[in-house]
Amino acid sequence: MSNRGNFSGRIGFILAAAGSAVGLGNIWRFPYLAGQNGGAVFLFFYLICIFLLCYPVMVGEIAIGRAANSDAYGSYKKLGGKGWGLLGLYGILAGILILSFYNVVAGWAFGYFLQISFGNLLHQQDFGPYFGAFVNDIFDLSSLQGFANSNLLFSILFMVATAVIVSKGIQKGIEAANKIMMPGLYLILIGIIIYSLTLPNAMSGVKFYLIPDFSELRWTTILDGLKQAFFSLSLGMGCLITYGSYLKKDDNISKSAAIISVADTSVAFLSGMMVFPLVHFLQYKLQVDNVATAGPPLIFIVLPQIFSEMGPVLGRIVGGSFFLLVCFAALTSTISLLEVPVAYFVDTMKYNRTRVVWGLAAGIFILGIPCMVSQGMVPALNQLDFYRGQDWLSFIADMCDIMLTTGGCLMCIFISRTWKIENMHSEISSSEPNYSTSFLKKYLTFTIMWVAPVLLGVLSILVIIEKFWGLENVF
Ligand code: TRP
């Protein structure tokens, strides 16, 4: 196994795993879910989910990878036999599906980054129709002042960037890229927050975000919070098994997992601190009470409108930096998503890394084309009859959520029933002498054996009901 590659040390691993965790989920999905679910109440539940439930699952996942020293399939198979290998394959499939739609959205962000930086986009009068047209016609090469605007092209470029990094391997590719992009991401984020807090009416946004109003609490708030926490930490599909397998034996697992969770949560939290003051600034400018902040278009419709209110120069700087931030976050995640199937073909199937990377990147890109054209170009995919009239991209994204929570549930069952929790403990304590007498050990045992599998099982069922039939129609 010596030629599998390793992270250079704990920092490299933490940066890469935090890079995987920090992504569109934090900057695109978290703020709009928070906007939809009452702001501070959502934040409150989200934090509970992360630290009480997701953290133990993360430790378990990393421990599996490091103990088995193989890809997601190989690890389950090695520790639990061929049958459990299927769970690894299920995770690998989930990763492939996530990447297929994720790359499409990342392509939009990349397109917006170029358009805003070149000063094209901010001349628009109305960003809603602009975004509609942008995602609708994927071939449109000429709509903005002669500058190529095809979102097909943008997502090809994004996938190529992902493949270039992954093909260079663990240290020279994944670790090196994260070492540049993660600090860059924090710097840009903090810069925009400082600026946005100086805008008029910013404090009203901060209040909405930080002071909970528990009368806003709904069942969907809890469901969305838990699902989002799982997705955001990259749990449930073997991503951290794969990264954990490149972790050296003397690196501390529980501390690394804590740092990764805090890093991811802080970026989600800070994204809210960036977005809500901006949104409330816009409300002030337009003299309206509520700009629609709910839903996926938040960063593609509402934010560009805010950037254009800032005037041509400042708008370009702040808007361009914002979308660069989104691209960094997305790219550190797409590389982790591609690495999961790549590791399987390299470790288990013994294929050549470079060929696998390019083959998979091309295949996954093609798999994403239906998502891309489901935003209006192909009406049949825009309104699925069997899926309550929603589009194909949402369908795939929701199926991935379900695959993650079911995968996480099965992983906990795997640890407690097959691999045995004692083996997980001894893997963790091999690099942490004090672990065996700690409270943490008891807490992890309790959560992984009982709380997490039950909650994740129930959550998965509720999410399936919610997505196909609507919770309100069933209960
Ligand atoms: N966590 C990333 C985000 O928040 C997405 C992601 C990357 C992911 N790798 C993953 C999600 C593995 C689930 C599993 O955007």
| Count of individual helical segments | 20
What is the CA-atom radius of gyration, in angstroms? 22 Å
* Main structural class: mainly alpha
Give the end-to-end Cα distance, rounded to a whole number of Å.
Answer: 52 Å
Query: How would you characterize the largest beta sheet?
Result: none
List all distinct small molecules, including ions and cofactors, that are bound in this structure: tryptophan
- Strand tally: 0
Mean pLDDT: 92
Along the chain, the helix and strand elements come as HHHHHHHHHHHHHHHHHHHH
Helix proportion of residues, in percent? over 70%
What amount of the residues lies in strands?
under 5%
The geometry reads as globular
Spans of 5+ residues with little confidence (pLDDT < 50)?
A: none
Task: Outline the structure in words.
With 475 residues, the chain is mostly helical. 76% of the residues lie in helices and 0% in strands. The protein has helices at residues 10-21, 24-36, 40-68, 72-80, 82-117, 127-136, 151-167, 170-197, 202-210, 219-232, 239-245, 253-286, 298-309, 312-348, 353-373, 379-382, 392-419, 421-429, 439-468, 471-474. Helix 6 (127-136) crosses helix 13 and helix 7 runs antiparallel to helix 15. Residues 20-21, 23-26, 98, 231-232, 234, 237, 239, 333, 336-337, 404 line the site of tryptophan.
